[in-house]
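The pair is quoted verbatim underneath.

:::
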Amino acid sequence: MIAGRIPDAVPFYHWSDIDPDGIWIFLTVERAFGRRLLPHLMTVDLAEKHGSKPDQTASRVAKAEGSVLFDLIAYLAKPDAKHLEQEELDPIIPRLHQSEWRAS
């Protein structure tokens, strides 16, 4: 309800684990909000730099053609992909870029 009351031009960010479950959560929240989300601290570079190989194969693999997370989803589908728990990073406020805002 809150998301529906805020203008579409205001970006919404989501920060989740960089693993298949984190992707699933991001996509679920995005569907529930009914608006585009922007990932925060969810990049292949961060996974490669700070992540580690998972102990087991992921049980859930997201598929989201056209998603803002497409590159991250493709990376996580690779056998040598590293996963990263969000708690392993210090939280920071997203940097707002005008290009992330969209006209309503």
Notes: The longest helix spans residues 20-33.
